[in-house]
TrEMBL record, chain A:
This is Probable sugar-binding periplasmic protein. The lineage of its organism: Bacteria, Pseudomonadati, Pseudomonadota, Alphaproteobacteria, Hyphomicrobiales. It comes from the Bacteria. The keyword Signal applies. Keywords: Periplasm, Plasmid, Signal, Sugar transport, Transport. Belongs to the bacterial solute-binding protein 1 family. It comes from Sinorhizobium americanum. It is found in: Periplasm.
UniProtKB/TrEMBL annotation, chain B:
The chain crosses the membrane at residues 20-43, 76-98, 110-130, 159-184, 205-230, 265-288. One of its GO terms (biological process) is transmembrane transport. It comes from the Bacteria. InterPro entries: ABC_transporter_permease (IPR051393), MetI-like (IPR000515), MetI-like_sf (IPR035906). The lineage of its organism: Bacteria, Pseudomonadati, Pseudomonadota, Alphaproteobacteria, Hyphomicrobiales. Keywords: Cell membrane, Membrane, Plasmid, Transmembrane, Transmembrane helix, Transport. One of its GO terms (cellular component) is plasma membrane. It is a multi-pass membrane protein. Its main location: membrane. Signal peptide: none annotated. It is found in: Cell membrane. It comes from Sinorhizobium americanum. Belongs to the binding-protein-dependent transport system permease family. This is Sugar ABC transporter permease. PANTHER family: ABC TRANSPORTER PERMEASE PROTEIN.
């Protein structure tokens, strides 16, 4: 009877490989868009060649907040998923609660620490433990520009923010919207993060956005960041309320707007229209004396579970994720670059190649920085204060001095 | 025989309690126990996950030192007051107009009631586009030739909360209308006839006789609309997502983001307790007066 039931269940689920699978691992993540799912399939297929099944548990929405909520209830009821996608501080924070499996043996064996940029380790280790396997690296501080508009106006990709703003004003006079964006706090935050480092150097970024140094927060340099942000506001059209980032990217593609500040997930929108980097559109870093690389990574952490087959599947999944071949395949689809620095750049597009180069330089120059807006600098309770102030400043009529005051008070209140 | 009888009569006595027990238990656990738990959390220093220490009023002090919370509380009062007044007023007016034996009344009634069938998410998204200066009303009027016309409240942090009121009123006044209409149909025509014979004008009849007679309907409308006002979380989320800046934040959106997105579980719990206190401050006097009336009657 039970055999009959089991075969019935297997038949209805229609999992042909289930018979030879050595184990199944449930992965909780918030990737639901087409390119994300396609990229995940690279991991899934490699895992299947090792004999393990990937059980998909996607909870989309709210930039991963919904998935976090799902995880909380799963952990509380003592039934954590085998693996979970981590963003920002989520991994280290769960590790502090003692629920995340230490992958240190695998990391030593596979030389993970050496293969990753050292700045990343904050988010994939906790004390001596290695707690998450990073699959990819996005860069937040890109500028995407319509080349035709730039050429017609006789503008080259700017080297400083003064040049960028001057170019924007020139475009505005010609009747083109210089900057396409929406009013969502994170879209404003991308510009704010870039300005912090671009105007005042990577050391200032570290002091303000990571160490929350009161002197840096309440400084003329910070006022300058807000002053420049106000100038950028002047380059945005008035219909930016509620505009989705992809709609803004569409404006650049269609020639309604000249440029957009956005992470490299925007690249897919250009490529999907058949546009070529440097021929149809420009991709360049936000301009600065010391170009920064503001990274956003996705990693997968494994939870402590009793089931031994799941434990084995966790090892297989971690090895799959850290496999250079898988990282390459995944990132070619996702639009990011591999978290590992030893993956060959062949087959990647020109924007990604530029990203590889600038990452190598940034690691040397000390300008490899976690992107605050996506949770890779200050902890969320502080990063959200930066986001609030920058957004309120951007959409309203607040003075730079008031914004700095509000920022200092807000950070102190959250300490 | 005797024993059996007493058993069945005892069972009959216990049966209602047994039947009610499961749902009572569920309510006690899922509502009151979690209210209690939230109260406990609000006195701890919980951030990312709950911790059970005692931090005194620290989270409440932190909450009231957060400008976003002040915005949220002010918005709740602005929104609820305007939403209740406008929905009730417009609903009553429409009901009275529809009650004048006009043609196609059934059709019009359906038209006005229909927005209620939509979810707040749909209403919010539609009004987001309608009120966007580059897509909606402003653009249409400008293209018709009135080029100096502006309607850009949704982009203005000071005015954005009123756009939420507009969308909410649009959705709910038809509902108020339906209840008032039912109330109007319940009023005996002879009352109006009598007043007309006495020489009262129509506005006077409505003001002095009919509207006071609608008191029960008015009470239902206000109670039901208050519910809607408090649960308007999804409307804000779809219409403005709390923006621009955090100008349209409501206590509910504040609580959600503090607890689940900002590592401030203690602050989130404190804000939930403040919301509970506010509701209790309204409900308890109401219950008290209701119960006393019943006892007296």
């Amino acid at each position: 009877m039970s055999k009959f039931l089991a075969s019935l269940v297997a038949a209805t689920m229609l999992v042909p490989a289930a018979a030879r699978a050595e184990g199944t691992i449930e992965v909780l993540h918030h990737w639901v868009s087409q390119s994300e799912v396609d990229a995940l399939n690279v991991i899934r297929k490699d895992l299947e060649t090792k004999g393990f099944q990937w059980k998909d548990s996607a909870v989309g929405g709210m930039s991963g907040a919904n998935a976090q909520q799902a995880l909380r209830s799963r952990l509380t009821s003592g039934d954590p998923p085998g693996a979970m996608q981590f963003l920002g501080w989520e991994g280290p924070q769960w590790a502090e609660q003692g629920v995340v499996r230490d992958l240190n043996d695998l990391a030593k064996e596979g030389g993970w620490r050496e293969a990753l940029p050292p700045q990343l380790l904050t988010f994939v280790t906790s004390g001596d433990a290695f707690i998450a396997a990073p699959i990819n690296m996005h860069r937040q501080n890109w500028v995407w520009a319509n080349k035709k508009i730039f050429d017609e106006a006789g503008i080259a990709p700017p080297k400083t923010w003064e040049e960028l703003i001057a170019a924007g004003k020139k475009l505005k006079e010609k009747g083109v919207t210089p900057v396409a964006m929406g009013d969502e706090p994170w879209q404003i935050g991308i510009i704010f993060d870039a300005l912090l480092s671009d105007l005042n150097g990577p050391e200032f970024y570290k002091k303000a956005a990571i160490d929350l140094d009161p002197a840096a927060l309440n400084s003329p340099e910070m006022t300058k960041v807000f002053d420049t942000l106000r100038e950028v506001r002047g380059l945005v059209d008035d219909n930016f309320v509620g505009r989705d980032w992809a709609v803004a990217t569409g404006m650049v593609i269609n020639g309604e707007a000249a440029m957009q500040f956005m992470g490299d997930w925007a690249k897919g929108e250009f490529l999907a229209k058949g546009l070529k980097p440097n021929a149809d559109f420009y991709c360049f870093a936000t301009p600065a004396k010391v170009t920064s690389f503001q990274y956003v990574i996705d990693s997968f952490g494994m939870f402590t579970v009793k089931d031994e087959t799941v434990q084995k599947a966790q090892v297989a999944l971690a090895e799959t994720i850290m496999d250079p071949k898988v990282q390459k395949g995944f990132n070619l689809i996702k639009g990011s670059i591999p978290a590992r620095t030893d993956v060959s750049v062949d087959d990647f597009d020109e924007c990604a190649k530029l990203g590889f180069n600038e990452r190598a330089e940034a690691i040397k120059a000390g300008s490899m920085l976690g992107a605050m807006t996506h949770g890779f600098a200050a902890k969320p309770e502080f990063a959200s204060v930066f986001g609030d102030v920058a957004a309120q400043f951007f959409v309203g009529k607040m003075s730079s001095e008031d914004a700095v005051k509000m920022l200092v008070e807000g950070i102190d209140n959250a300490r | 025989m005797n024993a059996a009888k007493s058993f069945s009569s005892r069972l009959a006595g216990w049966l209602p309690r047994i039947v009610v027990a499961p749902s009572l238990l569920i309510v006690i656990v899922t509502v009151y126990l979690f209210i209690l738990w939230t109260g406990v959390i609000s006195f701890t220093s919980s951030k990312f996950v709950p911790v059970y220490d005692f931090a005194g009023l620290e989270q409440f002090i932190r909450l009231w030192a957060t400008p976003r919370w002040h915005t949220a509380v002010a918005n709740l009062f602005i929104f609820s007051a305007l939403f209740l007044m406008l929905s009730t007023g417009i609903g009553l007016l429409m009901a009275i107009l529809l009650d004048q034996n006009i043609r196609a009344e059934g059709f019009l009634r359906a038209v006005y009631l229909y927005p209620m069938a939509l979810s707040f998410i749909v209403t919010g998204t539609a009004w987001k586009w309608i009120m966007n200066p580059g897509l909606g009303i402003q653009k249409v009027v400008n293209e018709l030739g009135w080029t100096s016309f502006t309607f850009d409240w949704i982009t203005d942090p000071k005015m954005a909360i009123y756009t939420v009121v507009i969308a909410g009123v649009w959705q709910s006044s038809g509902f108020a209308m339906a209840i008032f209409l039912a109330g109007l149909r319940g009023i005996d025509n002879s009352v109006i006839k009598a007043a007309q014979i006495e020489g009262a004008s129509l506005p006077l009849i409505y003001r002095q006789i009919i509207i006071p007679m609608l008191r029960p309907a008015m009470l239902s409308v206000i109670v039901l609309l208050s519910y809607i006002a408090i649960k308007s979380f999804d409307l804000v989320l779809a219409l403005t997502n709390g923006g621009p800046g955090s100008a349209t934040e409501l206590p509910s959106t504040f609580m959600f983001s503090a607890t689940f997105r900002r590592n401030q579980m203690g602050v989130g719990a404190a804000s939930a307790i403040m919301m509970l206190m506010t509701v209790a401050a309204i409900i308890i006097p109401y219950l008290y007066s209701e119960l006393r009336e019943r006892n007296n009657g």
